[in-house]
């Protein structure tokens, strides 16, 4: 009677599994490109921009990236602009002065812009802005989750615009913050000059994640948190463990597309980092 050793089956399954994934991605020991994990990613330049694109926010409905940058125009310090991520068509938003912050309400497709004199709303179809007259704060960052949040400069305070009123975010009244995002469990992640922190919604306490100087803090469409320093890009995984994704030079801004591709603002350009079918193996000594 024919019999099959279970140990042979296990080895065969392992062999087939290895062959399958070897066919799916080509192992390349030269490692050319940007490595995210052990997958080779390629850099695609989307736009040459004057200087330091930051505060990146994507309107996923129109595939449009909103961002701010240091202006080279006389009498202007900062400008707001937007870039079609498919066609690479770029425009500046000229009817606000000192545009610095950007956020998108994904449900209503409302675009918010922050400047030195408060908050504006931008209509992508008419290319017009509307001053909301809700605050005259100098806006550093905007974030939208159910309501509009913003941080201020130089005092680094966090506010929420809710039910027609502006008020301090109570969870962060005793700390400073320049960048914030809120995850699917209503935990508030925030950074200041000391590092990256999280206010846990359940236990009502603040804990330290890393003591890095954070350039950008963002969240993707499924609720994963990403952040970057001026030379490294990271993602938070289970239990707020930090996973390093990639290293670049002079990073100023970060956003994540629906497919997981990274949109990165460098000193004088905006690039897309997208995966290839190549896998890189790094020999450790």
UniProtKB/TrEMBL annotation:
SUPFAM superfamilies: NHL repeat
InterPro entries (UniProt xref): WD40/YVTN_repeat-like_dom_sf
Name this protein carries in UniProt: Uncharacterized protein
């Amino acid at each position: 009677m024919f019999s099959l050793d279970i140990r042979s089956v296990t080895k065969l399954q392992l062999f087939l599994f290895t062959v399958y994934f070897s066919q799916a991605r080509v192992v390349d020991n030269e490692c050319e490109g940007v490595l995210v994990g052990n997958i080779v990613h390629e850099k695609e330049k989307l736009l040459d921009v004057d200087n330091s694109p930051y505060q990146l926010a994507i309107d996923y409905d129109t595939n449009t990236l909103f961002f701010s940058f240091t202006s080279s125009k006389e009498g202007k310090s900062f400008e707001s602009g937007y870039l079609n991520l498919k066609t690479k068509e770029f425009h500046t938003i000229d009817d606000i002065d000192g545009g610095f912050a950007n956020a998108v309400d994904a449900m209503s497709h409302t675009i918010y812009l922050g400047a030195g004199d408060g908050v504006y709303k931008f209509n992508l179809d008419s290319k017009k802005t509307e001053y909301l007259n809700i605050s005259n704060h100098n806006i550093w960052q905007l974030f939208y989750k159910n309501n509009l949040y913003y941080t201020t400069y130089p005092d680094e305070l966090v506010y929420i615009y809710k039910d027609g009123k502006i008020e301090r975010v109570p969870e962060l009244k005793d700390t400073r913050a320049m960048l914030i995002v809120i995850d699917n469990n209503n935990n508030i992640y925030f950074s200041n000059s000391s590092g990256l922190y999280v206010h846990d919604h359940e236990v009502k306490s603040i804990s330290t994640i890393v003591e890095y100087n954070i350039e950008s803090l963002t969240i993707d469409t499924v609720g994963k948190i990403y952040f970057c320093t001026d030379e490294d890009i990271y993602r938070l995984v289970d239990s707020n463990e930090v996973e390093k994704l990639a290293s670049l030079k002079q990073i100023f801004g970060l956003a994540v597309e629906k497919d997981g591709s990274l949109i990165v603002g460098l000193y004088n350009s905006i690039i897309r980092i997208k995966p290839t079918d190549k896998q890189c193996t790094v020999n450790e000594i």
